[in-house]
Amino acid sequence: GAVVSQHPSRVICKSGTSVKIECRSLDFQATTMFWYRQFPKQSLMLMATSNEGSKATYEQGVEKDKFLINHASLTLSTLTVTSAHPEDSSFYICSAGGKVNEQFFGPGTRLTVL
Amino acid sequence: LAKTTQPISMDSYEGQEVNITCSHNNIATNDYITWYQQFPSQGPRFIIQGYKTKVTNEVASLFIPADRKSSTLSLPRVSLSDTAVYYCLVGDTGSGGYNKLIFGAGTRLAVHP
Question: How does pLDDT run across A30-83, given as a tens digit for each residue?
Fold first, then answer.
């Protein structure tokens, strides 16, 4: 199947700083990417839909000013956690593709905010 | 998207067949049923998808009754490496556009020696 990469795989930052996570589709173009967050022992929670060339669509309860999403090309979407706090520590996962059976997930990024 | 209900956890032993059932009573006519597998600290991986009756691939089978209100993922002869969380999702793949995935709680399968 298609490959989706994320960078970095894990990051540790101080409270109040911003962290950028990249999601790349390596061998296909993705007009739509999705960002999820997963806390320990819990399921994936959809945060937002990233649309190439337009604004992201955020799920209810997700602060768009805190989680900035940029989808500047057909192979790259970035999620920036602004002014990160310890409660933002989580596993962030992206997926790329269009239809349900064609969504490919990245390996995830472990964010730890001290 | 239709809500799904799965057992929270299951236990099995190596070499056994494991069947995980998912309920989706409100599935829509255009909805497909898709199963994903997730290992700790990794992104989910597509396992199998179906619309009705039976689908089989190299890793699993998916059984869907005529009313489509449930589905069963069957893993033949599981090994320790099949220990993971399994998610059942339903959604429309035929609209031509994207379809966001809403994950339920999933089933945590533990395979024992």
Answer: 888 999 999 999 999 999 999 888 899 999 999 999 999 999 898 999 999 999
Rg (CA), chain B: 14
Question: CA torsion sign, A64 to B101 to B41 to B110?
Answer: positive
Could B34 and A100 be called an inter-chain contact, meaning their C-beta atoms sit closer than 8 Å?
Answer: yes
Q: CA A15 to CA A112: how far, in whole Å? A: 9
Residue A37 has a CB neighbour count (10 Å cut-off) of 20
Q: Which residue of B has its CA nearest to A92?
A: B43
* DSSP label of B5: B
For the record, the structure tokens of A67 come out as 């989680």
C-alpha distance across the termini of chain B, in Å: 38
Which residue carries 């970035």 as its tokens?
Answer: A78
The sheet that has A76-81: what strands, in order across it? A4-7, A19-25, A76-81, A67-73
Could you tell me if A33 lies within 8 Å of chain B, comparing CB atoms?
A: no
Give me the amino acid identity at B103.
Answer: F
- Partner-chain contact B93 A100, CB within 8 Å: yes
The dihedral over CA atoms of A39, A40, A41, A47, expressed in degrees to the nearest 10, equals 10
Q: Give the chain A residue whose CA is nearest to the CA of B84.
A: A41
Q: Does B43 touch chain A (CB under 8 A)?
A: yes
